[in-house]
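Work Package 3 (structural annotation) set out to generate three-dimensional models for the target panel prioritized at the project kickoff. During this period the team completed the workflow that converts sequence records into discrete structure tokens, so that structures can be stored uniformly alongside our sequence database. As a representative example, we reproduce one entry of 277 residues exactly as it appears in the project archive.
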Amino acid sequence: MAAGVLYIVATPIGNLGDLSDRARETLGAVDLVVAEDTRRTGRLLQAIGVRAALRSFFEGNERARTPAIVRELVDGRSVALVSDGGMPLVSDPGYRLVAACIEAGVEVRVVPGPSAVLAALVVSGLPTDRFSFEGFLPRTSGERRARLAAVAHDPRTLVFFESPRRVPGMLRDLVATVGERRVALCRELTKLHEEVRRGTATEVLGSFEDDPLRGEVVVVVEGDRDGAPVDMAAAVASARALVADGARKRDAAHAIADRLGISANAVYRALLDADAP
């Protein structure tokens, strides 16, 4: 029996009209849809007239459920992976499943579509030729400032996901850590109340101090324009954190180098030197 196919399917981040015909066809044809939130995905499927078997697949159960899904794929069933909106795996579950499928020889295909990262980037008014997606920043101010310091000299445009409750603290920490930068705060993209506020971090912060933010937020931050030298100590510290989470030193060096736009070999050598007895 031929193995099934895992489809990574992008779904709307707000406007149902953004669902592609191919995504609609794929969701209607697979044997199983694995979803971050089955209730939310169930409403999507109902809206497009698709009836499909649903199974929850979120951060808390991804590791436990991946082997069973891979077995079903090996047995010939087709599976679609969706998140709550946008492209799965981007600050959403799915990486373990994709990696396990590849290891098992299961074909993985992508059905591209909406992405909050790219939508915010292109509407921000900031440079789009090179950018770095940083996901969610840590919740505490100290850890958040450490992360911001690690990317302070990155010349690329930076894209962050953030909770509306934490945006004020994030912008204050941004100014305190890297200085004043141009920012685009993108809220409720593609939805009825879509809004983009542009200006310096301080200006954007002042625009909603008396008007609390609501909804889903993406913050786009101007990269370093001064070409200041990279803080290698901060790069090494960031690489060490990845190693502590299980990454190999060389892989950690490459990840941090990509984030900062610097030489991976330089980070790797600095990491080895710092850890030398």
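The two ends are 55 Å apart (CA to CA).
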